[in-house]
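Dear colleagues,

As part of the handover before I leave the project, I'm documenting each prediction I ran so the next person doesn't have to rerun anything. This entry is a single chain, and its sequence is reproduced below.
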Amino acid sequence: MLFSCNGNDKKESSSNITKSEIRLTDQGYRIFLNGEPFYIKGAGVDKGNIDALAQHGGNAIRTWSTNNGKEVLDKAHKLGLKVMMGVWVGLERHGFDYNDKEAVKKQLESIKNRVIALKDHPALITWGIGNEMNHSSKNPKVWDAVNEISKMIHEVDPYHLTTSPLAGINKELVDLVNERASDLDFLSLQLYGPMDVLPQIIKESTYKGPLLVTEWGATGYWEVPKTEWGAPLENNSSKKADLYLSRYQNSIISQSQQIMGSFVFLWGQKQERTPTWFGMFMPNGNQTESVDVIHYAWNGEWPINRAPRLYDFTLEEQRAIDNIKLKAGNTYSSEVKVKDFDNDELVYRWEIMRESESNKSGGDAEYIPDVIGGLFPNNSSSTTSFVAPLKQGAYRLFIYVEDGNNHTAHANIPFLVEE
């Protein structure tokens, strides 16, 4: 079924089911739900932020597994949102062996039970089989298994589409998936920094069928410059917001002949190299400027109250790219420059955290590094001084600026403590 338009031969079913199909229209490929076009304005959502997505004009969420699937579907339906339900599939990098026929068969049966349990929910529109199955993958039988899962889903659930989110896209991968997983209804791709050149990437892949962008957002920690000691340089919250907007306008909307919508990442918060790298929200639920720009992209107007905008951040008048090295126990100064669109009173919070030593990839769970306490005599203004930690090693200085209206601007600077 790959690259085809589905739905014309589907049987009648309960009126509660949202029947999804793909049609080629004058505007390009589009998902249709119960006969009506549906352009996806969605996000990969942390469970606590679904309400905020609906409030900002989103219309869909994606998950990475069926965990709490009924709860997620019920919540989405209550808010008028649709769901691309993820089906977690074993990864080679986690040790799953696709030469093990019994393990593959057992996985298929387990997935079948989960699909049957959720397939008739009115919020469901698409199944996402696995996540980045090509990441650190060498065995082409991975795609045989994906194809069997898709065929099984179409047999037990003839009303919903199937796809498999890919880490990037190129001609070799398109040919492989087309050959071994042709039962998929369309392709999905996930990119971060290369989103800036997505139109060229699609062209070079030679793929001309329907697409979803199922993850995109901040430039990844593997794609940015690093310090001399290997610490990746994270963009501040305002630079990230600018990239979110330009990538949406220039690489998603501009490719509307093939791209049927997208799921921005991450409508929530997680630790991945830092606590702020990919999350559009803070741990306390505050929203960053990236939420503002996605609101603008989806609605054509800015939210009533906007996040603070961060213009500059220095440590001893140096910036993150300057390979800053400090002496243990010495006192240093830092300054952040911020403007608030609404002239809200700003609150400043400074923090020093050990550098993450994680070597995880692909979004796998990471530990949160320690915060070093007792270093700031004054922690509540746009300028501060602090005592460098006594233990040698790599650290980050974080600044968080809150506006009192559930918004936060943030930035960090890596530094190395020497004797």
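Residues 20-299 form a domain with the TIM Barrel fold (CATH 3.20.20.80). The CA atoms of residues 17 and 365 lie 34 Å apart.

All the best with the project,
I.
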